[in-house]
Structures are given as C-alpha cells and as structure tokens.
Amino acid sequence: MNQLAYLDYILDQTQKILSIDSPTGFTKNVTEYVMEEYRSLGYSPKQTIKGGILCEIGSDENSNDALCLEAHVDTLGGMVSQITETGRLILTPLGGLEPNNTESENCKIYTRSGKIYSGTMQMKNASVHVNKNYRSTAREFDTMEVVIDEKVNSKEDVLSLHIRVGDIVCFDPRTVLTESGYLKSRFLDDKVSVGILLGFAKYVKEENIKLPRKVYQYFTVFEEVGHGGSGSIPTDVTEVISVDLGCVGDGLTCTEYQVSICAKDSVGPYHYDVVSGLIEAAEHGHIDYAVDIYPHYASDVDSALTAGHEVRHGLIGPGVYATHGYERSHKDGILNTFLLLTKYLA
User: Fold this and answer.
1) Can you tell me which residues form the catalytic site (predicted)?
2) Which residues are the active-site residues?
3) Which of 36, 76, 208, 326 is the most buried (most CB within 10 A)?
4) 72 annotated as a binding-site residue
5) What is the pLDDT of residues 184-241, one digit of tens each?
6) Predicted TM-score (pTM) of this structure
7) Beta carbons of 313 and 235 less than 8 angstroms apart
8) Is 244 annotated as a binding residue?
C-alpha cells in the first residue's frame, strides 16, 4: 500500500469538500459532490430520505455482522432571524456556532431566489474609535450583525435583494495546508473525516481488499443538531463507528499527530469490546494513538443508540485543536486515522 498516495488523495478531497458550503439543513451541494466521487471510484451510493449518503464498500455474503462507518458532511453555520431597520442581518446559529468565533469573518448569504451575497459578521457599532464599550461588550448573536456588501441602509433595501428571514449564512472556511503538514480550516469537523472515509473506500477498491464483513459508509447531514445518525442504518448492521474529531486540549492526551480512540463522551461509555478492539488494532499496527474521554462531546453514534438502534458503538478521529472554531490538525493524525481503519477492518 502506498500510504502517501492515499494521504494525498484524502487531503485533496478534504480541501475540495471544505470549499463547498454545507451548514446543517443546506447540504445538497456537498452530497452531490460526494455521490459523484463515490461513482468515480466505482461504487453505487444511495441517498437517504433526509439527504445523507449510504454506500456499501465491501461485502462478505456469509457475514450477517455488518459494520457502518459514519461521518457527517454538515457543518456549523447561521440563518437569518431578523432584518434590522438599518439594513443589517441578525443570525440564529445552526449547530454549536460560537458568536465570538465569527467576529470579523467573511460570509455568504444564500437566498431562496438563487442569489448569493457576501458580507461580514461584526459586532454592532464595530468601530473602536466610536464605540467606548467595544472591549467590554459580550459577543452574542444579539450584539452582532452581518453587514451586507451592498448599498443597503434600510430593511426595505435588504428585502429588495430578496434576502429573507430563514436564508442560510455560510462562513468562509479559510482553508490552509502548510508545508509543514498542518491543515487549518473551519469545519474540519467533520469534513476531514469525510475525506478519510473516501480514502478508505479508494483503498478498498484499488487494492482489491476482501473485507471480512460487510461494510457501509454513511455520511449524515444533521449531526450538528443531534439527529444525524438516528435513522437509515441498515438492518444488518451490528456495529457502528463514528469517524469524527479527536479533541486536543487541557486534561486530554491526544495530539494533532495521533488518532484518538474515545472511551467515553457526555452521553456515556463507548462499547468496551469495540474500544478494546480499536486499541488492539492500533498497537498491532504500530499506529500512534491516544485514548481519551470527552466531557462536552456527542456523536452520530450516540444519536443512533438514543434512537433505539441495537448496535455496538465506537468513535475515532484525528486529533484537532480549537474545535468549533478555526480548527487545526496535522497530516500525521489524519494518516494515523486512515491506517487504524485499515488495520481494524481490512
């Protein structure tokens, strides 16, 4: 196996997917891209009722113990909740978007008429030389606004552009891949894992891998609001592994260069046998990994169990710093996540 070739593919696909705006509820463009990429690899993906993607990448006809790998293509974003009398937009968040992480960020407003406008998220009265309370003002969605890059000075001016309450606002991901191997971007959660799973699908196809069990890949579109993995899991699936982010921060052991194996999150412990199997595969494959507990985290697999699916569950992902902000990972952590999948499944 040419590891670097698959890593290059993963990084390339991740950057392409990051360039496609796809906050929760607005994922059609990115799922169309991913569906076409599956087809180019020789697979036959199917779209779920909610708009996700399900693709079988390997089958053992004698196995009734199928496994499902999940990642999500939806990201954080905003929705227009008010149009002010001065021609600015007030947002409500889609998912766990933090207002203080959006200040001075460029964004796009997608109207239902098909027009797209640019703008910038600012705090109200944003000039330091004018606003004596600039430093002390809490950055909240009701103290911030989108300044549209059009000559608008009133609510009527904005309405004339066909901008309406309920329109989607997407933030610039600002994706950068450094020469030293760091991938920096908004929305690595969870588009880097989508790239990893596409890389694994490519590996299975090109290396003619005979998987020991049937394996599905499932890209969900509502993970950021808590019900992405709650439905559409095939009935023959007995194990689900979410490929999401490994967190990097105080009290945790994971770094940006490792694959994280999660033992417990805010919902509860992951299945003991699955976690043990992932650890064993990492050790046998001499893969750099960490085991951690994430106290403020929930995954697609959690929503699957909450919805009543009778499956064993696990969670892995590359170490990522500054989650839900301007995130950063490293190609080593991305490669280690891919390699863990190859050792655990192939």
Assistant:
1) 223 (proton acceptor)
2) 223
3) 76
4) yes
5) 999 999 999 999 999 999 999 999 999 999 999 999 999 999 999 999 999 999 999 9
6) 0.97
7) no
8) yes
